[in-house]
Design a protein that fits this description.
It is a single chain. The chain is of the alpha/beta class. It has 2 domains: about 5-220, TIM Barrel; about 230-355, Lyase, Ornithine Decarboxylase, Chain A, domain 1. It contains 9 helices and 18 strands. The strands form 3 sheets. It has an 8-stranded parallel beta barrel with strand order 2-3-4-5-6-7-8-9, surrounded by 5 helices. Helix 5 runs parallel beside helix 6. It is elongated. The chain starts with a strand and ends with a strand. The structure holds pyridoxal-5'-phosphate (PLP).
């Protein structure tokens, strides 16, 4: 009786393997709600990819607080994407596996003071303008690191915007800053990147043979094969209503006869209101009303659909369930039946994730 993410296991796993094969050195990203799957499951899947012989050595989490969910399920290196700050406590037990992202020279100084053998990647500011050092700061970081031979510089981190295939010029410029900073590195340094196309990666690999490129991928990996994913909600109750019957928290009345459906999924799952249907002008609303359209009486579109038709909320979603209004004439689903729901995977907490064998 739940909001369920059903995964076609063979299809999903084949997709994960094909993405891993196409991106040697891939750094799977497990953060937030685990793209709908939970971070714990993603950590196990990343380990599964490594066990299958794919070139996966590091798993990225978004925040230090997410490490406990993944550290026992994944056995390789752990990269934290949010830059380290002085208030983040260092976990000695994880230190040898942990790669810190450092985006300010002052933080680098503090981190090396707290752990002179820390493993770090230096984040260079990109056109995202989220975190990162300017060219001059990268150079200062190089100076500082040359005085800390125990520190392990794992390379450069670049977080790029989502622009499809428009990054080559920017990456080239930022990499030149990195080279100019003369950072100590006892092996082939890595450039940890996001949102580059396969063609851009190939070009960069041929241009910068001294570097390894490590693409951090979340969405394209976990959610890249949408046809393997299906989201459904159980119908929990069905009530016939006549025009004028009251229902819901707000004592609203049915505009015409039909059914009120109670379905699994509410605000706690991340089910939100959709934009009102149809046009917004008063004239357009009057015309819709004349046609008997339900949006004109204030019902808004829901993400639930029944028999392929998107349905309207009878009132705003409750905490764990939602009420839909089904006008007379539509097929009425049975209690226990599953109906389709369209969700944003990164914003939904499913009750169950079922992966077929
Ligand atoms: C979330 C994130 C990624 C992965 O992004 P997707 O679009 O999910 O592939 C990569 N790098 C950083 C720094 C991130 O925060």
């Amino acid at each position: 009786m739940s909001l369920t993410l059903s995964v076609d296991g063979p299809r999903w796993r084949a997709h994960l393997e094909s993405v891993a094969s196409a991106h040697p050195g891939i750094v799977p990203v497990a953060k937030g709600n685990g793209y709908g799957f939970t971070n714990a499951r993603l950590a196990r899947k990343a380990q599964w990819l490594a066990d299958r012989g794919h070139d996966v050595n590091a798993l990225a989490v978004g925040m230090y607080d997410e490490l406990p969910d993944v550290a026992q399920r994944w056995h390789g290196d752990l990269l934290v994407l949010t830059p380290w700050r002085p208030w983040v406590p260092l976990e000695p037990a994880l230190a040898h596996r942990l790669v810190h992202t450092v985006s300010r020279v002052a933080d680098l100084r503090d981190l090396l003071h707290a752990d002179p053998t820390a493993r770090i990647v230096l984040e260079r500011m990109t056109s995202m303008r989220r975190h990162g050092m300017a060219a001059r700061e990268l150079w200062e970081a190089g100076e500082l690191l040359r005085k800390h031979p125990g520190a392990r510089v794992e390379g450069l981190a670049l977080h790029l915007p989502l622009g499809q295939g428009a990054h080559l010029g920017e990456v080239t410029r930022l990499m030149n800053d990195y080279v100019a900073a003369e950072l100590p590195a006892d092996h082939r340094p890595a450039v940890w990147v996001s949102h580059l196309t396969d063609a851009e990666l190939a070009t960069l690999r041929s241009q910068y043979g001294d570097f390894r490129f490590r693409p951090r991928i979340g969405t394209g990996l976990w959610l890249g094969e949408r046809a393997a994913l299906r989201v459904t909600a159980t119908v929990l109750d069905v009530h016939a209503v006549e025009r004028g019957d009251a229902f819901g928290y707000r004592g609203r009345t049915a505009p015409k006869s039909g059914h009120v459906l109670v379905v699994a999924g509410g605000t706690a799952h991340g089910i939100g209101l959709e934009a009102p249907t149809g046009e917004q002008t008063i004239k357009a609303r009057a015309a819709t009303l004349a046609r008997g359209g339900l949006d004109a009486v204030g019902f808004v579109r829901s993400p639930y659909s029944i028999d392929g038709k998107q349905r309207l909320f009878a009132e705003p979603p409750h905490m764990q369930a939602s009420m839909l209004f089904l006008p007379h004439g539509s097929r009425v689903p049975e209690v226990g039946e599953d109906v389709d729901v369209r969700v944003r995977y990164t914003a939904t907490a499913f009750d169950r994730v079922v992966v077929s064998a």
